[in-house]
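User: Structure with iron/sulfur cluster, tokens only please.
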Amino acid sequence: MTVVERGRRVAFCTLGCKVNQYDTEQMMTLFRRAGYTIVDFDQEADIYVINTCTVTGRGAAKSRQMIRNAIRRSPMSVVAVTGCYTQTAPDEVAAIPGVNLIVGHQDRHRIVELCEEAMRREVPIRAVNNIWQAREFEEIPIDTFSQATRAVVKIQEGCNVFCTFCIIPYARGKPRSRDPESVLAEVERLAAQGYREVVLTGIHVGSYGKDVRYRFTLEELMERVAEVPGIERVRLSSIEPRHVTDRLIDLMANHPKICRHLHLSLQSGSETVLRRMKRPYTAREFREKVERIRSVMPDCGLTTDIIVGFPGETEAEHRESMAFVREMAFSRIHVFPFSPRQGTPAATMPDQVPKAVKEARVREMIALGDELQRQFHSRFLGQTLLVLAEEEADTEEGWLEGYTHNYIRVRFRAGDELRNTLVPVRLTELADDVVVGEMAGRAIGSTRPDRERIWLPVVGV
Ligand code: SF4
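Assistant:
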């Protein structure tokens, strides 16, 4: 059992999206470099950092819950709160008794010194600035990534689309792209540690390179990342339909290391609801893009996000959205009940949909999503696909799970020694959320050296 020096223990809790997970990795890197030891969030620590989310009301509520958990567990420790909830509602967060420090997105690089200052001060410290003054990407390279197999690399920050339901632009500010050389250097570091797959993420990935002096497109960056020795897969986290260029489609269709998986957030399949959301495309344009993608990559995994119960959504609009989603035949759907976010136009729109109606529509859309996922999975039964073996299946010992390039979750019988290798698996049967398969050849690539596992809760919202 490692004895950790008092005064040098820090624990983290992350809520929300992949970008937040990456931001936490940045702060962990800074603490490690300052000689701190990262301990489990449910263990005693001298500093607790809660990286919050506010994309939904539930996200903000869960953030408050994790903050209070830390304060209750260790009242003498420093409780520091960062993330989007802090950036958009600093007064609310600062008002929670026991919070010692609140830090906005622009001051994440000062997290260690601010926490050490908070240790010396009685009164809470506020380091939250106007995020719209941010002009540069907050460059804090990570040394490593806590998840075992797939590493998330942040390449872009911010969004200025202002969809009427979305709080994110108010939390993250203007679009800011990261220096491609810094991205490549980080991917090289991660590859040297044995990471095989890199997930390129950002708040509005499609606007990469459109705001700065780097004469680098997203496609060029993806190609360069795929050329880094040791990297077997490059995956995009999410992108808007209008940013899916023919160049990107061709790259995904022809490059052996670029995953044929696109997370295209649709949000609604109703033209009139899309207009009220001020989404930058119509359902017709979305359909044309999907047809283009499928004409070149029929096996592409197309996943999406759908909001149900947007203000004013009639039964007819909900039916229209369901019909459109069925027509698009997505391979996986994340369904969200509309959640009014204070400060966004949709929060004060008339005809807010009653809770019970929203819940019924959520159930319907989820059921449709499950049906479409099974249809997509069943298309690949009998085929052999490469699976990046990530972790032991939590259902059975001696079974591993991982994703195919087109984002099918596969479970197959194999020993732990194959974790983090690419395994050819013949898909044999559907099972709940995954497809069961059997090994159909030798694994590719070497496993990663095992290392101590720290409990870093990543709380979904
Ligand atoms: S594109 Fe719309 S939904 Fe996405 S982050 Fe920007 S404002 Fe939010």
